[in-house]
Amino acid sequence: MLDILRDKKVIFFDVGYTLDKPASGDWMFTNRFLDMAGEKLKQRTEAEIHRARDAGLRYLAQDHLIQTVEAEIRNFFDYYSIVSDHLDLGLSEKERDQIARDRACNMKNYIPYPGIREVLSTLSKTHKLGIISDTWPSIEPQLEYIGVSQYLSFTTFSCFVGVFKPDKRIYLDALNKCGVPAEETVFIDDGVRNLDGAAALGITPILIAANPAADAETNYTKIRDLRELIR
């Protein structure tokens, strides 16, 4: 077991790029979206696509207190409408609805990283395990799909708190649920900024760089595979 875990009682995990990754290579531009956006998307510049993404994400961030999957689908419908309008993709209302429902309900959009069930099963014998994730209500069937729900004692999802990491309220929610002092907890995430927010409250941070884009320079303990935690 990684030495940093030995005197801890609780391990919190992020989900995206920690436990799983997007099947299409992108969390929002799913395979269904890419199929339906077709050749028009390929004709847009990276700058145009970046601006469309930003506009859609700004909309999603305006009100993140989302309680149900149906509400999530409505938000995704609006997101894909904004992206379609900005990029002149011409997606019909039916197509936007299909893409939004696929994004929320098709668990094949997620690919679990190798060994995560073994890691969580092993660690659950010595630690309480939890989740701190920026996500939507469909995270619950997602965690079932990737096979880790049974190992979790508590979860903190941004959509139920109404704020994203690194807002301190999301970490305080997790600490309140686990009932353990921050100094006895660890948080594993692929973003240094998110880890900074946790560390500010006394939670021990571990950067995971399973996604090469997350391989940042940091003084935090860094791993590239969750299986390093139990070796």
Word description of this protein:
The chain has two domains: 3-19 and 113-229, HAD superfamily/HAD-like (Rossmann fold, 3-Layer(aba) Sandwich), CATH 3.40.50.1000; 31-108. α2 packs antiparallel against α3 (69-87) and α3 (69-87) crosses α4. The chain is 43% helix and 14% strand. The protein is built from nine helices and eight strands. The relative contact order is 0.18. It is elongated and about 55 Å long. The chain starts with 9 loop residues before the first strand and ends in an 8-residue tail after the last strand. The longest helix is centred in the middle third of the chain and has 19 residues, at 69-87. With 231 residues, it is α/β, with parallel strands linked by helices.
Q: What's the helix and strand layout?
A:
Blueprint: E1 10-13, E2 20-22, H1 31-42, H2 46-62, H3 69-87, H4 93-105, E3 110-112, H5 116-123, E4 128-133, H6 139-145, E5 154-157, H7 158-161, H8 168-178, E6 185-189, H9 192-199, E7 204-208, E8 221-223
